[in-house]
Structure formats: structure tokens, C-alpha cells
Amino acid sequence: MSDAPAHHVFCLCAPSGEKEAKKAVLPEVLCVLQVCLEGKLTEQTVKHELSRGRRSAGDLIPWVISQEFAQEDFPSLSGARIVRIATHPDYQGKGYGLLALKLLQDFYEGKFYLNDDPSTVNMDPVVYNDEEMVVDDAMEEKLESQASLPALFPPLNKIKPDILDYMGVSYGLSEELLRFWKKAQFKPVHLSYVPNQLTGEHSCIMLKQLTGKTTSSNWLSSFVTDFCWKTIETILWLNRLEAGLALSLVSNESNPGEYQELSKLEILKHLDEESLLNLKEYCSTSGYGFPVKGNVSVLSKFYFTHRLRDVNLSKNEEMFLMSYGILRKSFEAVAHDFGMPLDTVKSEFMTGFKKIASCVVQICGDLVT
């Protein structure tokens, strides 16, 4: 930490009573966050490094995102990458981690800082003169109170923050960690295709846009839409990804209506006139039979990239659509995975798929005659 001035540690502490305050006792630490400030890279630096096919040390998220989405302006944004978060063993599972993240967000959005407070603490590291601290004889050294040293735990309203554009995190993907970060309203934007050789986990980057300097544009939603499409297209390469984890990765429970709605032009890029007529007949005829598998794959991608606003599927319908339409498992394998009767799996899948097909046919309107 001494050699990394961009790293900061934040502690969520238990409230201290009057006795503890008088005795100057350190409060009990409930949760600790290690944060690394990233970004603020110049356009010239980004172009120079990317043209040489490499990236400088540090600034993990800016470099990865700029390469993933070909966005040379993203590294100019200011962000904080959460390196570690640790909660006291006695208080785990009680929401202190989420509370610490929310308070950290409020801090970097400037909600704690008091502009008229004369006792503001600077976040820049304190530098001491080594020559003044050298003692010739340690036996003759006199230990005195260092009144000039900064407080160990200054409150957030005493610290002037950097107003940031986003907070981010990079971690090895697992269902438990994904659930935690999504509960904190972080959104996935990158997933490595090659798993870590030691842990076997795929590296996942998630971001949360703050009300910083770029509030005029909601740039994160376009990243998430692009990420969902890429993940759906390449999900078969990720052998360790089960249907439940894959569904959680591309689902968007917090803001289901924030993405751009599917247009007729986009539908026609993926479905020809014959396919659309097939879908219309499937929706209007009760005994039509089973839908064409190619149509199932295309419509599944439309649904899981959040382009169909008025379609609401049950959890089972989503799971079966993911398993059959995206992961391309047989219905027998899906029934075995979920321990359900084969007829029930097929019936619920057909119900969910008909909702999606009806929406697509309705968007196309007079194109389907």
C-alpha cells in the first residue's frame, strides 16, 4: 500500500459509545474495501499503446474495456476498481458489504463532502523526510507523541473525494459472487473466454455508472447490450457455464426497460419472409407442432439481449429457453438437469416461446401477410 498511492482502504465501522470515544479506542471494523483509482488516461497514450498491441501496467478496467468495445475515449473516464472486499466473519450475510459499497458510491459522487469544512483531509499520501527520522542510537531515542500524524480513520465528510464516473470490479465468475455484485447493481460488461489455469474460473468485469462527469449519456447500457449479445453468441465455448449461471449473467432484473427496442430492420437481418410466416402460423394455430430450431435460436437471442420490452417469461420458461435455445441441449437433457417430466419441460418451453414469437410478429406487422 505504501508503494501504491492510487490504492485506498475504506472501513465500515460499528458506532462507538461515549466510553470508547473518551478512551480513544479504535471502533470495531465491520467491512473493509480496498480500492484502486483508475482512468484519466490521455487519448494520445491510449492510441500509442493500442497501436503497439499492448497496454501499460495498471488501469486494468480502462484497458480491457477500450479493447473489448473499441472505445478509445473510455480510458479518459475516472473510475475506482474494487480490489478486495472483506466482511468480519461474525457479520457476514447481514448486508454490511452492500452497505459499504453504497456508502463508497455516495462518497465518490460527492454526497459526503462538506465544502465549508476547514478541517478537510487530503487524499494525497503524506510524505515524510527520511533524514529527519534517522536516529544514530536507537537506545537513546525518545518516544514522543506524534501529534502531527493524520488520523487513522478520518470520517468521509472530512475527505475531499475525486468525483468519479464509475466503479468497477474484476473477479473469477461464480454464481455466488455474481449474485452479490448484481445485488449491488453492478452490470457485467466483459467475460474472458479462456478460464484461469489455476482456478478454472472465467474473469468477469462488472461496472456501475455514477452520477459523475458523464451523466448526460447513459453509456453503460450500450456496453451491457453488446456484452449480452457477445456472451449469447459465444456461450457454447464456456463449457463450465451451467444454464442458471448463464441466465443470471445476461438477465437484467434491475432495469428491464432501459435498452433499445427491437426494430423491423433488425428482425429482417436475421429472419427471412418464410421464417416470419412460419412464426405467424405457429402463433395462430394451436396444433401447429414444434417451432423450427433456427427460429428458436434467433428469437432466444432477441429475448436474452433485452430487445423485447413487452415479453415476460416465468423463471422456468427462461431456464428452458436458455438450455434449449442457447446452450442447444436436448429436451431429454433439460428434463434430466431440472428433474422434471419431459412433457412439462416441452409444454412450458412452448408457452414461453409463443410469447416471444407473438411479439416479433406484432413488431413486423404488415410485413407478415
From TrEMBL:
GO CC terms of this entry: 90S preribosome; nucleolus
One molecular function GO term is: tRNA binding
Where's the N-acetyltransferase domain?
1-210
Q: Which CDD domains match?
A: NAT_SF
Per its record, how is this protein called by name?
A: RNA cytidine acetyltransferase
| Possible tRNA binding domain boundaries | 219-364
Swiss-Prot/TrEMBL keywords: Transferase
Any one GO BP annotation for this protein:
rRNA acetylation involved in maturation of SSU-rRNA
